[in-house]
């Protein structure tokens, strides 16, 4: 079994032990506490970090682009947002 597969298997086990409505903070803590490979270095740790990122991406809010942030702010302010570009 590869380090990556071992990491994914361990994360799947941790996921099954968490309540369905667990917060992202609780998920991160469970993953931190459930690290199975001893020292956090070298290839096993890199495989773990990649599997962790892939798992958490399913539960984190998507990051907005700068354009989406500006549009959301304009909508929040009722379209009254004025942008100044050093004129």
Task: Output the keywords.
mainly alpha; 4 helices; 87 residues; 60% helix
Word description of this protein:
With about 90 residues, the chain is an all-alpha fold. It has a domain at about 5-55. About 60% of the residues lie in helices and about 0% in strands. The protein is built from four helices and no strands. It has helices at about 5-15, 25-35, 40-55, 65-75. Helix 1 (about 5-15) packs across helix 3 (about 40-55). The radius of gyration is 20 Å and the shape is elongated. The chain starts with a helix and ends in an 11-residue tail after the last helix.
Itemize the secondary structure elements and their pairings.
Blueprint: H1 3-17, H2 24-33, H3 42-57, H4 66-76
Give a quick precis of the structure.
By secondary structure, the chain is mostly helical. The protein contains four helices and no strands.
Largest beta-sheet characterization: none
Query: Which structural class fits the helix and strand makeup?
Result: mainly alpha
- Figure out the total of helices: 4
What's the N-to-C terminus distance?
A: 61 Å
Low-pLDDT stretches: none
The topology string of helices and strands comes to HHHH
- What share of the residues does DSSP label as strand, in percent? under 5%
So what's the overall shape? elongated
Task: Using the CA coordinates, give the radius of gyration.
Answer: 20 Å
Helix content: 55-70%
Strand segment tally: 0
Residue-averaged pLDDT, rounded? 88
């Amino acid at each position: 079994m590869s380090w990556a597969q071992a990491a994914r298997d361990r994360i799947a086990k941790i996921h099954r032990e968490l309540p369905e409505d667990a917060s992202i903070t609780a998920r991160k803590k469970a993953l931190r506490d459930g690290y199975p490979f001893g020292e956090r270095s070298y290839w096993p740790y890199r495989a773990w970090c990649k599997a962790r990122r892939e798992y958490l991406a399913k539960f984190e809010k998507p990051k907005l682009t700068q354009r989406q942030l500006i549009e959301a702010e304009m909508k929040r302010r009722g379209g009254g947002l004025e942008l100044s570009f050093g004129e």
